[in-house]
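[SOLVED] Need 3D model of a two-part complex

Original post:
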Amino acid sequence: MRVELKNVGFTSGEATFLEEISCTIEEGQCVLVMGPSGSGKTLLMKIMATIIPPSSGEVRYDGVLTATMSDRDLDHARLRHGFVFQDAALWQNLSVLNNLTLATQYHHPRRDPGEVQRRVRTLCHSMGFTEDLNQRPARLSAGERKVASILRAMMLDPEAYFMDEPSSGLDAATSDRLLRTLRDLKERGRTLVIASHDSEIASQLADWILVIDQGHLLAFDSVQNLVRTDDQRVREILVDVFDLSSTYDTDILDILGSSDDPFA
Amino acid sequence: MVLIERIGKRAFETGRGFSYAMGFFFLILRESFFYIRQRKSRRVLTFQILFTAVEALPVIAILSLGLGAIIIIQGVALLPQFGQGQLVYTILITVITRELGPILTAFIIAARSGTAIATELGNMVVSHEIEAYMANGISPISYLVVPRFLGVTISLVLLNVYFNIFGLLGSYFVTALLATIDFRDYFTNLLNALTVVDVMVSLLKSAVSGAIISTVATYYGFKVEQASTEVPVMAIKSVGQGFILLITANAFLTVMYYLWL
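Solution:
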């Protein structure tokens, strides 16, 4: 699934949150969205996923302008991707199981329930999710809720994934499983757009990096090019988001340099 | 100049809000049509009817029984003094079936279910659950609003019938404890006073009221933007605005009834 943004902007009242953002995410690519807190990463991801319409500019899926799609077509276009929210955003009035199966039941009401159950079990096993699926999300920890949100996004095996801080709040073992899952998705040609400050994800998965600051696109380039950038602000942001206190060249190159061979 | 500017700005915002609300209403009507045609899961609709209609039965019963009894007691005591004893049945039909049945059930449901719907949807907006529905290709209008719209409308029509049954029939038994009224005379006179038009007008008022309550409640629920503190504010607004629209719509239909029939 190819996602194209052209001069995308977002304003609310007098405030401007995003300005003139253009980028093209090719099918099967893994793009890491980076920027300081409040820079507009989440908003940008939601606009990419057509959850929020932009105030200006256009979003295209495989060359088709989403703004001209009918409501039905837009719903179907959204089925082509999964979205993991920063705060999980599980439906509180449904059990965890229903959170995972609702979209399947809604879009494929005649699908064999046994097949759906098997899919749930397989996904839960892959992410090491062993909690009782009949309980409500409120009883889960923040990390478990995040895992459930990732599982929900994977249920329909979409072509693309938008993940907002997928590894935040996860313990080391679950983070490892997440990394393996993401690697598997990438191997299967899924498009991944991930807002994350996780250096493991950056080093092992990212093909391109999108750097955003105060609603402005500072850089959108391949990892190889970005590590050689002269832009001081981009360097500062990458150093900040990776929480490194030493020099750009040594540490960032250490982190991102291995992405030439992400599966090494 | 500042005052004119403020009035103009307010008028512009009201106009924009009205056109948005009308667009929202027509979107609900369109999605309701698809919902009925597609025969998708009725789980949310069933729960809405259960919550709106079934759980409101005791309140409606008490209210209609009391009201019916008061009208009969007052009518039987006062009207014969003016030689108009037979009018008690016409008054019962006019007051209970045509006027108070639809509006009182609507007030109860607006206060009870309207607030609940606005609060529930508002909280879902704050916790990004609405966005999660969209991200999963599930239209919030189709999945959340339409079942509530149909559920509240169907419930209100049913509750109005229930209100009438208790108000007209149940109140007889209450009154029979206090005064001697012939059972056969009572029902014969009541049915003579009741016309098909009365029933149709009453049901139409309930259906319109149900549509108003659910549309206003869901509209204000979705108007919550990001803070949980907005939720009670919008819930209060939905009740206030709902009451105003209910009174206006009921008055309009009553005027239409007297003008055309």
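Edit: Residues 44-260 of chain B form one domain.
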